[in-house]
Automatic annotation (TrEMBL):
Belongs to the enoyl-CoA hydratase/isomerase family. It holds the Pfam family ECH_1. Transmembrane segments: none annotated. The lineage of its organism: Bacteria, Bacillati, Actinomycetota, Actinomycetes, Kitasatosporales. This is Crotonase/enoyl-CoA hydratase family protein. NCBIfam families: PRK06563.1 (NF005126).
Length: 263
């Protein structure tokens, strides 16, 4: 790939950041360049207050064939990944996170591709998508969060069924177990639907409210429900004191959609 060609495209659409895996000739197999650019894209999403939601998708016929082991093998063997300055972990393991991500999958979703989906908050897949958590058949294991996110989101038995065998499964099974929330007819339709959901979040949901939801959920996950419960009333009082809180009440009184400004 020429140096001028981005391995991950980044495009703003209002308050939505569109992040596209862009190595289609190699089934979007991840190189160090792709990992670095996706890290930078996630860093931008989190740091820019004018971005309220992200979309992760892929150009070409496949979401990703996994890692390009010839390119990243030595780095994996060292047990570390160096993110660029301002970047964030591509698997979103360096939380907390405050901006939601909607992912669209199609074609092959292999190994780390499943973990990228698990790291997103809402997932849409084309009906012809094929999944495989294949690491166990290569003498390694999933290191991007599948060992805990997959059981959390799909249930223990469903996760172990696919992690321990490395077998391929289809979009209908992914939907059944909760790996994806919606199915679309094909890849373009999946991307369009994911973008529609992200635009709905960015256009209708109060951004400060979304961030507070994320903070509460992360707190409950990391410190337990009691810690999150202690923050419920202080957090809601804080939101009511914001300009967006006042706008939410006024829009209710006036029976119109609220116009939020993240203030």
């Amino acid at each position: 790939m020429p140096a001028s060609t981005p391995a991950v495209t980044v495009e703003r659409d209002g308050h939505v950041l569109l992040m596209g895996l862009n190595r289609p000739a190699k089934r979007n197999a991840f190189t160090k360049q792709m990992l670095s650019e996706l890290s930078a894209a996630y860093g931008l999403l989190e740091s820019d207050d004018d971005l309220w939601c992200g979309v992760l998708f892929a150009h070409g016929d496949h979401f990703t064939g996994g890692l390009d082991m010839l390119d990243v093998g030595a780095e994996l063997a060292s047990g570390k990944f160096d993110a660029p300055e301002g970047g964030r972990d591509p698997w979103r393991l360096d939380g907390p996170w405050s901006k939601p991500v909607v992912a669209a999958a199609h074609g092959w979703v292999m190994t780390l591709g499943i973990e990228l989906l698990l790291a997103a908050d809402i997932r849409v897949a084309a009906e012809d998508t094929r999944f495989a958590q294949y690491e166990i058949r290569r003498g390694i294991y999933p290191f991007g969060g599948a060992t805990f996110r997959f059981p959390q989101q799909a249930g223990w038995g469903n996760a172990m069924r696919w992690i321990l065998t490395g077998e391929e499964f289809d979009a209908a099974e992914a939907h059944r177990i909760g790996l994806v929330q919606e199915l679309a007819t094909d890849g373009p339709a999946a991307i369009a639907r994911a973008t529609e959901i992200a635009t709905l979040i960015a256009g209708k949901s109060a951004p400060l409210g979304v961030r507070t939801v994320f903070a509460s959920a992360h707190l409950a996950h990391e410190q337990g429900e009691s810690a999150a419960i202690e923050r419920l009333r202080p957090d809601i009082a804080g939101l009511f004191s914001t300009a967006d809180g006042a706008e939410g009440i006024q829009s209710f009184i006036e029976r119109r959609d609220a116009v939020f400004t993240a203030r």
